[in-house]
Design goal:
Length: 369
């Protein structure tokens, strides 16, 4: 018998397991993939740490979380400053004075604000009801049509008029010449990649890790092995889809090693026109300021999730939210099972949010044990 069976070795499950093991609990982790670390897994290829499941940039303003993750890796000073490519025109992201100057030729913040106000007048003061209207209210028509519309519709597989406004409410818009995408106090990339963080979390005599192990192949057997379950998989799958499938967006990656030391000059370049099938190209070496003679790039494609795909982004529209709430109510009746992580809670979390949620869950669960 184990005190806890943890399903999934991503950040949520690994943080919980680490904290429980420190309290003397015996943990068994089962992971369906052939490696730990979930979607933050990085693999060293030709001396370059490749972000296998898409770009991950750690950022937070929570000093406790920053100190916590720095126990397991040393972070560099990488600042996320993506570039947008619209039909071979290059623009800085987030939307800043650099973007406004390139697009409109404006020099001062006042001129940029005046241009946005002029363009958003098309809404006639109405409260935005969808993503398109929300974007226009924030940055005007030109930026919406060049840098938001095509990218967003590729990413979500839906028209911007069908997507809820809240998806883009936190869009960074700055009237300074600052290209730092995040507003957070702390930011960086772990030197040597992300995988080491989870490996160190799980390096404890009280933790057993079983890779290439599918929870659902022997669900009843696994559940009988532990007093409690920490489940980080899809909540609808746990309940055998009894209220129907929750919708997700999935991703497809195409990577290649190139005989050049610098392919695009930036770690992340978004392709914002609908004519280009992929949403962005990642050049991994730039996350760690690499000077290797070769480079590795990854083209990222967004697609509708189907069974067998990896689910990445929950589609939090009204129908899916209602369906998730039905599963959430059912989960509260499961005294033996703790649901967590982005799939267990059907919510997109940044890495620092996942760590914070796992620590809070561990504290609540272990405080009296």
């Amino acid at each position: 018998m184990y005190d806890y069976l943890v399903v999934g070795s991503g950040l949520f499950g690994s943080v919980f397991a680490h904290e429980a093991a420190k309290k003397g609990k015996k943990i068994k982790i089962i992971e369906k993939r052939n490696h730990v670390a979930g979607n933050i897994f990085t693999e060293n290829i030709s001396g370059i740490n490749v972000h296998t499941y898409g770009a991950h940039i750690f950022h937070t303003s929570n000093k406790e979380i920053w100190n916590y993750v720095n126990q397991f890796a040393e972070f560099n000073s990488y600042i996320n400053s993506p570039i947008a490519n619209f039909k071979n025109e290059l623009y800085n992201l987030p939307f800043s004075m650099n973007t406004f100057n390139k697009l409109w030729g404006v020099i001062t913040p006042g001129e940029a604000k005046e241009m946005i106000e002029k363009q958003k007048a098309v809404l006639k003061g109405k409260t935005p009801e969808n993503l398109e209207e929300q974007a226009i209210s924030l940055v005007g028509i030109d930026i919406y049509e060049k840098l938001i519309k095509g990218y967003t519709e590729k990413q979500w597989g839906r028209s911007c008029t069908e997507l809820p406004a809240f998806i883009i409410k936190r869009l960074p818009v700055r009237f300074t010449f600052d290209n730092n995408y995040f507003n957070d106090t702390y930011q960086g990339i772990p030197i040597g990649g992300y995988t080491q963080i989870v490996e160190k979390m799980l390096d404890h005599p009280n933790i057993e890790v079983h890779l290439k192990t599918d929870f659902f192949a022997h669900k009843e057997q696994f559940e009988n092995e532990a007093e409690k379950i920490v489940y980080t998989g899809m909540i609808d799958q746990y309940f055998d889809y009894q209220f129907g499938e929750l919708e997700y967006r999935s991703l497809k990656f195409e990577s290649e090693e190139l005989e050049t030391d610098n392919y695009q000059g930036n770690a992340v370049v978004n392709y914002t026109s609908k004519e280009v099938p992929y949403t962005r190209i990642i050049e991994h070496k730039h996350f760690e300021f690499g000077e290797q003679e070769k480079t590795i790039i990854t083209k990222e494609y967004s697609k509708e999730w189907e069974k067998g795909d990896e689910p990445y982004y929950p589609v939090n529209d009204r129908q899916n939210t209602e369906r998730f709430n039905a599963y959430l109510n059912l989960s509260k009746e499961q005294n033996k099972v703790i649901f967590g992580g982005r799939l267990g809670m059907y919510k997109y979390y940044d890495m620092h949010m996942v760590i914070n949620e796992a620590l809070k869950m561990a504290e609540a669960e272990l405080s009296n044990k």
